[in-house]
Amino acid sequence: MRKTEFVLAAVAMLSGHADARQADRDDPLLRPIAPKYAAQWLEPQTPVRMHGQSYYVGFQGLGVVLIRTSAGLVLIDGSVPQAVRAIQANIRKLGFDPGQIKHILVTEPHWDHAGGVAALARDSGATVIAGTAAVAELRRGTVGKDDPQASIHQPMPPVSRIRGVRDGEALRIGGVTIVARATPGHTAGSTSWQWRSCEGKACATFVFSASINPVSDDHYRFSDHPERVALLRRGAAKLAALRCDIAIPSHPGTNDTLAHLAALERSRARNPLIEKAPCKVLATTYTQRLDARLAKEKAEQR
User: Fold this and answer.
1) Residue 228's domain spans which residues?
2) Is 223 left (phi over 0), alpha (psi -120 to 50) or beta?
3) Contact of 237 with 181, CB cutoff 8 Å
4) Among 17, 159, 167, 268, whose CB has the most other CB atoms within 10 angstroms?
5) What is the pLDDT of residues 227-269, one digit of tens each?
6) Considering the entire predicted model, what is its pTM?
7) How many domains is the chain built from?
């Protein structure tokens, strides 16, 4: 290639990148939601194979998991709109094509976990699957008025191609069975996802857990909503009872996921993600947070 041709090609490539960036800025499905607030969750995390054909492709503050099947890729959660390109880049770093995502599973209809789903589904043609009670909120792009975060929840791009699943429903996708596990309380239709991963004869059961945190706006009191407290306790009990060798929470800082991923990058001699009863441990953390929140509200009433 002559020098002039090389320069023209380089200019064209740079121009193409600039055009792509401008297109993203103009894309309504990629417009950032609360960028300053969301930045706390988006610290980059190296994508890594966790076990078998299950991969971590999310961030230090928001979990996103990829499962490779013989019928295409399955993604769990979509983070925020401004994180979509980073998720797709992480998938490419692992050697996969994000255009081969066939299904996107959603833990909850909050913008930090589902805000990027509409763009990811559009770019891949994937079908979105969520707990039945979450479907209407995902289609609207807003949560219901009874959500503890309703007054502060940011609108997100609505999801059009979506279907609901009931508690215990099994999705059989390309040789992998993924089971929907209702873990209610945090949002309508909060759903955790359970599947089995094998490396030869060594198998492990994953659970990607929906948040069961008692989070709300500044004026909401869980003490005034015993039905919500009961839902959170039921969700934690459901999670604790699940068979589980590897627990990945939708906010990975809730347990030791980030430390385990770092250790896994250094050595695969022993898989640190495989633990004894990690779902029970995670459920205990959520219950302790609820108890602390209720105690705080009681103290503030005195």
Assistant:
1) 34-301
2) alpha
3) no
4) 159
5) 999 999 999 999 999 999 999 999 999 999 999 999 999 999 9
6) 0.92
7) 1
